[in-house]
Input
Amino acid sequence: MVDPALLYVFDRFRQADSTSTRSYSGLGLGLAIARYLVEQHNGTIQAESFDEGQGATFIVRLPLRSQNQEQHCSSPESVYH
Output
């Protein structure tokens, strides 16, 4: 069974505890930003939780660069000089 909170965990401004008396502060942007950055690198991110109150595991998958892509990357020296 999928935890219903995981369906929305990557939404902007989403927090598991949206009450005014919640224990943790924050805007609910961290995981939305993480998803954006991962997707910008053609990757995927997913969340898993096995039991309520036991935390979550986040899995990030990023593609490896091929030899061809590495040859087209600028060296740090060429970027700053």
